[in-house]
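Priority: medium. Attachment 1 of 2:
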């Protein structure tokens, strides 16, 4: 009803027109003199309709999300170039369970499948231990603005990884914090503006991720509604600004090195989203983040300068059919 009412309010009873304002004569009497049986309308040039972009969930109705992230990183350390490539694909299911009186959704997320390829310096690195994550489940709490406010299940998720790789436990506890896990699930849901929009309207979202001895990442997302595509999907443009802050000097170290200072900036970071406002879900999205700059790290008491050039591309697709096992 809100959607219908909003569109009717924006477009008038006749698209692009609205009932003319003025005296009773201009609104009722004049049309009858002219032989018209309907109220007079003041018509303006047609503009893109106002739409409500919002996820639509149904209790018990599962949908699936495929999230692929590719990272290409080049570093120069002590005059030597080190290249790294990582390609990770998560296949997740989401099942809405209930909605409370405050309009918070409880949604069960399950990792249905996982693919990972890691290459460092031209060598493939085994990553079979990540397969232990398949079947992991989380309970998400999502507020009325489609922001994930709470995640449960992270402890069991971490235990599975630590069991396969005990020596990595201190680092995994930091990079797989509850906040990090929330931000892993958030990209597809946070695009909604929680309001009706028309072509050219923008809204923003910020995310702060503190990774202890690695540093803090402040990310600002700006979304701009660009109107409808030929297939009636709503297109949203995305611009990203990322700011990196060096870790606190007193941060507990679990890395073989210590980051002393850094000057990293994001550039050419953007993306686009296609949203189906009828079905109420993101159909697809792609996002590219390019991070460049220098760091000064300390290894064994000796300081070294590192040059970094990293490009990360994330693509998301949603479907109502389970993509696992399909040929």
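Attachment 2 of 2:
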């Amino acid at each position: 009803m809100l959607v219908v009412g909003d569109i009717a309010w924006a477009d008038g009873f006749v698209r692009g027109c609205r009932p003319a304002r003025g005296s009773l004569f201009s609104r009722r009497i004049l049309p009858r003199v002219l032989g018209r049986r309907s109220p007079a309308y003041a018509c303006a040039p047609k503009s893109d309709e106002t739409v409500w972009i919002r996820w639509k969930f149904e209790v018990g109705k599962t949908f699936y999300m495929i999230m692929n992230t590719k990272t290409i990183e080049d570093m120069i350390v002590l005059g030597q170039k080190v290249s790294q490539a990582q390609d990770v694909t998560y296949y997740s299911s989401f099942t809405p369970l209930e909605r409370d009186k405050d309009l918070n959704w409880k949604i069960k997320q399950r990792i249905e499948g996982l693919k990972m390829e890691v290459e460092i310096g031209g060598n493939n690195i085994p990553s079979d231990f990540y397969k232990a994550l398949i079947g992991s489940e989380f309970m998400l709490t999502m507020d009325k603005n489609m922001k994930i406010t709470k995640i449960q299940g992270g402890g069991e998720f971490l235990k599975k990884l630590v069991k396969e790789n005990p020596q990595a436990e201190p680092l995994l506890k930091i990079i797989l914090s509850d906040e990090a896990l929330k931000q892993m699930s958030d990209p597809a849901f946070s695009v909604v503006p929680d309001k009706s929009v028309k072509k050219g309207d923008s809204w923003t979202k910020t995310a702060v991720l503190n990774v202890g001895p690695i540093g803090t990442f402040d990310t600002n997302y700006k979304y701009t509604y660009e109107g409808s595509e030929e297939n009636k999907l709503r297109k949203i443009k995305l611009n990203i600004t990322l700011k990196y802050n060096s870790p606190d000097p007193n941060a507990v170290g679990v890395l073989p090195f210590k980051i002393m200072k850094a000057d990293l900036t994001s550039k050419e970071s953007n993306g686009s989203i296609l949203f189906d406002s009828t079905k109420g879900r993101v159909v697809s999205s792609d996002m590219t983040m390019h991070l460049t700059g220098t760091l000064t790290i300390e290894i064994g008491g000796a300081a070294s300068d590192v040059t970094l050039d990293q490009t990360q591309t994330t693509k998301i697709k949603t479907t109502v059919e389970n993509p696992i096992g399909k040929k």
